[in-house]
Amino acid sequence: MPEHTSTTEGEMPFSAPDGRKPSITWYKIVGELETSSSPPLIALHGGPGAGHEYLTSLTDLWELHRIPIIFYDQIGCGRSTHFRERIGDESFWTFDLFIAELDQLIDYLNVRQKGFYLLGQSWGGMLGGIYAARRPKGLLKLIIAGSPASFPLFIECGKRQRAELPKNVRDALDQGDRDGDYNSPEYEEASVVFYSKHVCRIPMPPEVEKAFFHFKDDPTAYYTMQGPSEIVVTGNLKYWDGTEEAKKIEVDTLLLNGRYDEVGELCVEPWFRSIPKVKWVVLEKSSHMGHWEERERFMELAGSFLARY
């Protein structure tokens, strides 16, 4: 990031529903909220629990288009308040929790009146899609990147991709599933093979490695909602399907995913079929981290979409 780029960090008091303790949401603003002629872009990271760092390539949009970027660590990860004591509590870790946090952040930063854009990646795109379906005041445009519209279809994508892995890799994954041991060296090595094909096909940037650090540091939200890994889904999102709610999205929407994405065409297509005003672009050389794997192309697509009118 160029030295002259304006950045602001802060903490928002967050009243988490049934949080049982005071909490804060940490945020970082790149660019000028008050003086920029462009509405800001709020970046919704994945996981849940991946933290904001792996999305920081989005600062290109400030440099190229002067679109201010609002990053934040969602509750339960990074520099925001953690709730390790709520692991497995499916009544706490819900869409409503994260929507309440996003709503409060929008009002706390006073951007609702000017308007704002949303970009959600992976889980963040699911969150952004459901939030947009509630037609919040101030939302102008939505980008959903590498996000499934249906978790059952996401699971089916994973089964198909897993079936294409070398036999020794499949055997190691199957053994971990049978034993319930997802931390063995064999299982972790096999997972790396899957990730190198369907999560990040370039040498993993340190910012992306940081997301995996967050998962290890505090897996509470991820474990409760997703499961023990990208490959094994046991959490409360297992049967989630946003197809019907997506029909309520009124704003212009851009869908992005990679040709080799773990979030494949099968589970992105329902967004395209359901959202009334939508464009879908596949990044031909990318998997799940198109904002790094094809960074220039990703920013060209996102920037032209947001700045077009």
Could you characterize the architecture of this molecule?
The chain is α/β, with parallel strands linked by helices. The chain has twelve helices and eight strands. The chain has an eight-stranded mixed sheet with strand order 1-2-4-3-5-6-7-8, sandwiched between helices. The relative contact order is 0.16.
Notable characteristics:
single chain; 309 residues; alpha/beta; 8-stranded mixed β-sheet; 12 helices
What's the short version?
By secondary structure, the protein is α/β, with parallel strands linked by helices. The protein has helices spanning about 60-65, 95-110, 125-135, 150-165, 165-180, 185-200, 205-215, 220-225, 245, 265-275, 290-295, 295-305, and strands at about 5-15, 25-30, 40-45, 70, 115-120, 140-145, 250-260, 280-285. The protein contains twelve helices and eight strands.
Structural class: alpha/beta
Unreliable stretches: none
Termini separation comes to 26 Å
Number of helices: 12
Report the mean per-residue pLDDT as an integer.
95
- DSSP E strands, number: 8
Helix content: 25-40%
Most strands sheet: 8 strands, mixed
Give the topology string: H per helix, E per strand. Answer: EEEHEHEHEHHHHHHEHEHH
Share of residues in strands: 15-25%
User: What overall form do the CA principal axes indicate?
Assistant: globular
Sheet with the most strands: spatial strand order: 1-2-4-3-5-6-7-8
Topology summary:
Elements: E1 7-14, E2 23-30, E3 41-44, H1 60-65, E4 69-72, H2 95-108, E5 116-121, H3 123-133, E6 139-145, H4 151-163, H5 167-179, H6 185-198, H7 206-217, H8 220-225, H9 243-246, E7 252-258, H10 265-274, E8 278-283, H11 290-293, H12 295-307
Parallel strand pairs: 3-4, 3-5, 5-6, 6-7, 7-8
Antiparallel strand pairs: 1-2, 2-4
